[in-house]
């Protein structure tokens, strides 16, 4: 609709606007007027664009040259993420960039992260059937995917059926297979996980207050491709609400994993998708996680955690901790070498007198002779 020649490959059939470009100026003006009218007469209605081209300013106000939509689907995030999740575990390090690329543009528009519509219909398979591995890994992959979507910046959109991990595609001509959650524990665990994840999302402003602002997101480590782990910070309007997120997309759990944290203090785990009540293996962090005075990931302090397999966890600073005094001065003194005793000075060589008129230079080699 936005382009005059969308789907036209024959150059002879192409049309151009008065500016000599291919944008349909009448269509874009109509969209602006429609969105402006909806905002005026129905301010409670959200206007969302399913737009996959590079048309700029889709979610900017019409008075600023935008189209006036409230949100836009992030089709790039959806395609990259699902491509990554379909990748078998040994090959995920090579596709790590698919996880992190969306953060390069995530605040250019008011993006929504869709796991719905064309991606779960028309022969593309349901989400769980795209996950590699046995049943346990498939359900763990579903939890990791939902966790990643919820902790990523932007809005969220899911089709019915994702919350119970049904194996068939979404079909308009039949109902959702809710009997799966009644008859099978694995599907019931998935439903419980999504319920608790939604509740956790609503209860923690850092996940939604700045979902469309660059101040709401900060990487800790985006480059740990070898272990398929990403860590980042989600920030709210109150610094006390800030959350630290770790997601492990590999099937191996990791003990004594060191990660940098934004502030010195005591941290606690608030949520873990590997919890046994969700069907996970129970690799969780209990008790207090105290900062250590060891720089890591570009941070001045770090903590050591247990990393669950194919799962994500949320940490939060919940207490203060006295920082050990810096012993830099003492270390410098200890590092200084002891002053060495000055060696006895060699007596100056006596000045030899030369006979006046003789030269002190080395005698010139005679012409024709060679130095051996």
Give the helix/strand layout.
Elements (H helix, E strand, L loop, with lengths): L24 H17 L6 E2 L21 E3 L1 H12 L10 H4 L10 E5 L19 H17 L3 E4 L20 H5 L1 H19 L13 E8 L4 E6 L8 E6 L5 E8 L4 E7 L16 E2 L10 E7 L3 E9 L8 H8 L37
Parallel strand pairs: 1-2, 2-3, 3-4
Antiparallel strand pairs: 5-6, 6-7, 7-12, 8-11, 9-10, 9-12
Helix pairs in contact: 4-6
Q: Describe it for me?
A:
- With 372 residues, this protein is α/β, with parallel strands linked by helices.
- The protein folds into two domains: 11-207, Alpha-Beta Barrel (TIM Barrel); 214-319, Immunoglobulin-like (Sandwich).
- It contains seven helices and twelve strands.
- The chain has helices spanning 25-41, 75-86, 97-100, 135-151, 179-183, 185-203, 328-335; strands at 48-49, 71-73, 111-115, 155-158, 217-224, 229-234, 243-248, 254-261, 266-272, 289-290, 301-307, 311-319.
- Strands 5-6-7-12-9-10 form a six-stranded antiparallel β-sheet, covered by helices on one side. Strands 1-2-3-4 form a four-stranded parallel β-sheet.
- Strand 5 and strand 6 (229-234) form a beta hairpin.
- Helix 4 (135-151) packs parallel to helix 6.
- The protein is globular, with a radius of gyration of 32 Å.
- Residues 344-372 have low confidence and may be disordered.
């Amino acid at each position: 609709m936005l382009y005059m020649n969308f789907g036209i490959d024959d150059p002879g059939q192409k049309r151009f606007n008065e500016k000599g470009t291919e944008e349909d100026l009448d269509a874009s003006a109509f969209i602006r007027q429609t969105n402006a009218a909806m905002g005026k007469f129905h301010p409670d209605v959200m206007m969302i664009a399913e737009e996959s081209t590079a048309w700029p300013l889709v979610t900017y106000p019409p008075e600023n040259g935008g189209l006036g939509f409230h949100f836009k689907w992030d089709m790039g995030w959806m395609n990259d993420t699902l491509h990554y999740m379909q990748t078998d575990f040994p090959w995920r390090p090579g596709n790590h960039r698919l996880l992190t690329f969306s953060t390069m543009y995530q605040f250019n528009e008011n993006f929504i992260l869709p796991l719905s519509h064309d991606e779960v219909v028309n022969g593309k398979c349901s989400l769980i059937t795209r996950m590699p591995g046995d049943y346990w890994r498939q359900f763990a992959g579903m939890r990791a995917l939902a966790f990643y979507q919820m902790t990523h910046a932007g809005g969220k959109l899911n089709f019915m059926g994702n919350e119970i991990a049904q194996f068939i595609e979404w079909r308009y001509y039949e109902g959702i297979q809710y009997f799966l959650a009644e008859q099978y524990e694995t599907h019931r665990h998935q439903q419980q996980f999504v319920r608790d994840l939604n509740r956790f999302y609503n209860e923690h402003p850092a996940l939604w207050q700045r979902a469309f602002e660059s101040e709401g997101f900060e990487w800790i480590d985006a480059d740990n491709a070898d272990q398929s782990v990403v860590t980042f910070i989600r920030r709210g309007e109150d610094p006390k609400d800030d959350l630290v997120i770790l997601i492990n997309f590999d099937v191996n759990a990791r003990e004594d994993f060191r990660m940098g944290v934004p502030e010195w203090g005591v941290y606690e785990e608030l949520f873990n998708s590997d919890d046994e009540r969700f069907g996970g293996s129970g690799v969780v962090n209990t008790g207090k996680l105290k900062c250590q005075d060891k720089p890591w990931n570009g941070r001045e302090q770090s903590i050591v955690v247990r990393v669950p397999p194919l799962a994500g966890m949320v940490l939060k600073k919940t207490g203060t901790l006295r920082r050990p005094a810096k012993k830099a001065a003492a270390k410098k003194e200890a590092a200084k070498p002891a002053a060495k005793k000055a060696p006895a000075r060699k007596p100056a060589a006596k000045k030899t007198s030369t006979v006046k008129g003789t030269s002190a230079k080395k005698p010139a080699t005679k012409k024709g002779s060679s130095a051996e």
